[in-house]
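Batch manifest, entry 17 of 40.
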Amino acid sequence: LDIVRLIEKAKDMKFPTSVLGLGILMHMAPRIIKAYDHFCDPVWPDNGIIAGCTQSTFWARMFLYRIIQGALAKFESQTIRTFIDDISQKLYRGTEGQAIDDIVSAATMLGKSLIGSGLKISNKTTVLGRTKSMRETIVRRLKFRNIVVSSDTKAKDLGIGTSGGTRRCTHFLRKRVIKAKGRVKRIVTLNRVNKKAGRLYNTGAYPQATYGKEAQGMSPSAVEELRSMAAQAAGSGAAGKCATTLIWVNLGVQNDPAIK
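Output type: structure tokens
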């Protein structure tokens, strides 16, 4: 976000001047990274969303409010979801031809509004559609309007895979499960008591393995895979030990994936 444009947007929305001044000063303040007992030189931001800034979400929402409001008012039966600088736009239409026309018009309007406000559209922006011909037509027509996007059968939004059809998209979920298994292996190698193992599992491996599955659901085999990871973190070193006993006794009943 350009600081000057951010102030202009705030004034346009009649944001309290005193609060705006304090917020902008905090947003523009230098960042200093600390690693152990070492500090880096001050980093002065001039634009963009500052990683770790507690006000970034608020400033982004305020900056995008008018843009999103205008796009929603123009086209009915659409959903626009934002999270800081991630924006997803969905339209639902009865026929493929109508869907193509409205998607192109809605995406063009939103894209030009973002560019006109000094923002940039990522080259990772992806068009999803039910058929290949539909996706290719949308990409080709948007290119004529100077909005370059790609098309695919799946895309990632906030780390969650989304497909244009009815099939489940599990590619990104499997990658996270593999990383979670690596974290469990590191927990096992640590010299620790069971309570600490439970905290490490709850704050590291379990969130890594389950993020995004709430939207797509979990099969019984996926739940058993999570229980196996929990039993391993609880100290399963020999065959024949009951996973339920290990989890309930060493990690607690509340940490059993089958119950969560």
